[in-house]
User: Which sequence fits this backbone?
């Protein structure tokens, strides 16, 4: 279920459970991820995290995800060997944020449909 937040307020969610870390580092407590999401009302505007740069830990996470998919009867996905090779080569300490400019524009213009702010139709994306 999606969270529900006050309509005209920004809400910042931090310290996701470790199970939701994705590509983020864990905090020193080992139970929460250095990851966040920013909502305007119920609309997610941005997400970001402190990048996990440890190739061994990332490989283990990928393997755990494959095991979970297998247990759920889902098809396996190939390990991203190029990504893992990049981690092996050394990724500097970094973080990133993805901001949905189209979503921000929706809120600023007061429109409910993302199609109203896109430069071209979704089927041409």
Assistant:
């Amino acid at each position: 279920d999606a969270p529900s937040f006050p309509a005209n307020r920004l809400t910042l969610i931090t310290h996701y459970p470790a199970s939701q870390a994705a590509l983020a580092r864990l905090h020193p407590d080992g139970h929460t991820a250095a990851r966040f999401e920013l909502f305007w009302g119920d609309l997610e505007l941005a997400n970001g995290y402190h990048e996990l740069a440890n190739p061994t830990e990332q490989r283990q996470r990928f393997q755990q995800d494959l095991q979970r998919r297998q247990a759920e009867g889902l098809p396996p996905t190939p390990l991203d060997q190029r990504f893992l090779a990049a981690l092996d080569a050394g990724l500097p300490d970094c973080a990133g944020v993805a901001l949905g400019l189209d979503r921000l524009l929706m809120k600023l213009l007061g429109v409910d449909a993302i199609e109203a702010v896109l430069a071209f139709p979704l089927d041409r994306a």
Remarks:
- The chain has a mean pLDDT of 93.
- The first strand starts at residue 10 and ends at 17.
- Strands lie at 10-17, 32-40, 43-50, 95-99.
